[in-house]
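Anyone up for a design puzzle?
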């Protein structure tokens, strides 16, 4: 994995801008700690930071190869990602006469683009964000993987175009101001820590949406979707469906275990991570690669303070031990305490460039930092709940009937948080309603569906296109901030396309969440793990954390120069903080974020506004 950035300018000689493109590239050093490269021409400058996973000795970027037609027609590539079908594509290209200089997938991608142009996207199986510059045509082409696992942001202005894996690369350009307008604040206070697809939060920034590509030349910019979910009839019965799901998942795990550097899995003892680890262990055994290394996260004194509830019915510890012994993995438990979690809130902001999921981000950052000491690549179970329908809100009638996102039901609370002036400018209820209506209008319903089927397809679509990107972005940014590549097998587009059209009555077979996945994993996992009730990524239940973030926030609000004063209702926050018991159970966002996370989010907001010297344009 890597970090990419670039700058197109029709009115300047970019060969004289080496210092600027190098500055932009340096901001992505943590994403790619192993190597750095830049490429400059009259109107285009590219930068790349490399994390070496395949063919570490070769594959330097930006990579240049002759375009079709030869002569001075070159294609220049910067690429962040991994192609899991690179061997098949390589063989196909060799049959067409291409000769390879490296064994890395970067060259496979570049030559696939040289041969097939934008149509190469149809052939790719992987996670990626890349940009290609055509030297003879003065044309930029960019694309992002189907599910948006790898990030890509851009900013367009008169005669100029900037892009980067993260906003920080674009913000490093001296002509790009760190500004936020009312819509950006609405994303942070009304939608956040989720984000509307395509929205860059920073003023005049956009995100290239998942499954989209973009062309920019002297005639302007054109964007279009090359992939989207398609609804179709599902013909297989339960047993046939389970067999297909198992076949697809086993295949994608095996593809994603290919690496020239140490690889591991993240293991919580839940269904999703246990399945990936079981397939990995089987593959390692079959190929004589020894035992799989696994990692888990927990928090100091969580065993003393854990209380079961609807969203977190049991703790992971005993289940991790169960799977560790069942699969004979080499297990590495990691544990963090309150002071570490609070201190890491700022590092999480720097990784993401905006406030995020508070200690949920911070703990993942710390976890990935520890994993990086012993591995370079990890497999993680993100996306299974969105794709297979695993969250409690798939089963709750109030969430199914709510005319809003099921992870963001606390509209009154969010309104109460805002200062009266900001509330008038953001119109939070209208903003949320507009974003929800936009999402619902996109759902590709199938003719002949009854109301229940339509409702479940809508819920699935919201989860795949609105909630899942939040978790994928979190996983990418926290892991890449320490140079760890995390692969997400449940995001294989073949699996997603297939499961999308499984009817809800089959998807929930046996009356259980993710019923068809459990059915598919019969014989792969022990029975008790197979039917364990879902428990999400663990968070700290230590009351010391609530006290720490509450006190830290209140202390910052005492500072007259605190930038939060103009944005939030400070009196409401103080009253809420004083009601200790109530503030620990505020249903602020999703299934993990309540009072402590709200306070931590505001701490992140304060730090972000100060550190980035954010200018509000309202």
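Challenge accepted. My sequence:
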């Amino acid at each position: 994995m890597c970090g990419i950035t670039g700058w197109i300018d029709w009115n300047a000689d970019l060969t004289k801008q080496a210092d600027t493109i190098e500055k932009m590239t340096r901001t992505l050093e943590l994403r790619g700690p192993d190597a750095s490269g830049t490429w400059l021409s009259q109107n285009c400058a590219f930068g790349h930071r490399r994390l070496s996973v395949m063919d570490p000795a070769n594959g330097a970027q930006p990579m240049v190869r002759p375009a079709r037609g030869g002569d001075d027609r070159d294609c220049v590539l910067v690429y962040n990602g991994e192609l899991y079908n690179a061997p098949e594509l390589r063989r196909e290209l060799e049959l067409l006469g291409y000769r390879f200089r490296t064994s890395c997938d970067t060259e496979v991608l570049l030559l696939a683009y040289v041969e097939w142009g934008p149509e190469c996207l149809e052939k790719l199986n992987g996670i990626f964000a890349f940009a290609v510059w055509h030297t003879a045509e003065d044309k930029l082409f960019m694309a992002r993987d189907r599910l948006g696992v790898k990030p890509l942001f851009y900013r367009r202005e008169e005669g100029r175009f900037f892009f980067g894996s993260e906003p920080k690369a674009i913000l490093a350009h001296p002509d790009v101001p760190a500004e936020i307008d009312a819509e950006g604040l609405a994303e942070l206070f009304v939608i956040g820590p989720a984000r509307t697809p395509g929205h860059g939060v920073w003023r005049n920034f956009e995100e290239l949406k998942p499954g989209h590509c973009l062309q920019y030349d002297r005639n302007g910019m054109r964007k279009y979707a090359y992939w989207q979910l398609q609804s179709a009839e599902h013909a297989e019965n339960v047993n046939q469906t389970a067999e297909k799901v198992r076949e697809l998942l086993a295949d994608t795990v095996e593809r994603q275990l290919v690496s020239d550097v140490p690889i591991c899995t993240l293991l919580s003892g839940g269904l999703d991570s246990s399945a990936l680890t079981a397939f990995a262990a089987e593959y390692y055994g079959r190929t004589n690669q020894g035992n799989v290394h696994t990692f888990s996260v927990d928090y100091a004194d969580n065993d003393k303070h854990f209380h079961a509830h609807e969203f977190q019915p049991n703790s992971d510890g005993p289940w991790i031990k169960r799977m560790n012994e069942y699969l004979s993995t080499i297990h590495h438990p990691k544990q963090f305490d309150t002071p570490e979690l609070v201190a890491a809130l700022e590092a999480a902001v720097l990784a993401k460039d905006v406030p995020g999921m508070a200690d949920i981000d911070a703990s993942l950052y710390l976890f990935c930092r520890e994993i990086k000491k012993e591995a370079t690549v990890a497999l993680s179970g993100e996306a299974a709940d969105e794709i297979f329908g695993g969250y409690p809100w798939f089963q709750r009638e109030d969430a199914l009937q709510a005319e809003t996102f099921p992870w963001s039901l606390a509209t009154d609370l969010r309104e109460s948080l805002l200062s009266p002036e900001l509330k008038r400018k953001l119109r939070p209820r209208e903003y949320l309603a507009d974003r929800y209506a936009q999402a619902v209008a996109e759902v590709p319903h199938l003719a002949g569906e009854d109301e229940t089927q339509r409702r479940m397809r809508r819920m699935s679509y919201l989860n795949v296109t609105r909630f899942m990107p939040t978790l994928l972005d979190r996983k990418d940014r926290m892991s890449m901030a320490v140079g760890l590549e995390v692969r997400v097998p449940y995001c294989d587009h073949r699996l997603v396309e297939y499961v999308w059209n499984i009817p809800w009555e089959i998807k929930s077979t046996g009356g259980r969440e993710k019923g068809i996945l459990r059915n598919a994993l019969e014989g792969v996992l022990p029975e008790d793990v197979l039917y364990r009730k879902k428990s999400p990524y663990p968070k700290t239940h230590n009351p010391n954390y609530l006290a720490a973030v509450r006190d830290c926030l209140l202390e910052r609000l005492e500072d007259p120069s605190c930038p939060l004063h103009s944005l939030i209702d400070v009196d409401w926050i103080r009253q809420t903080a004083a009601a200790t018991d109530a503030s620990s159970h505020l249903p602020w966002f999703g299934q993990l974020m309540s009072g402590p996370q709200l306070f931590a989010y505001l701490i992140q907001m304060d730090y972000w506004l100060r550190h980035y010297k954010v200018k509000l344009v309202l």
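A detail worth pointing out: The domain at 2-225 is CATH 3.60.20.10 (Glutamine Phosphoribosylpyrophosphate, subunit 1, domain 1).
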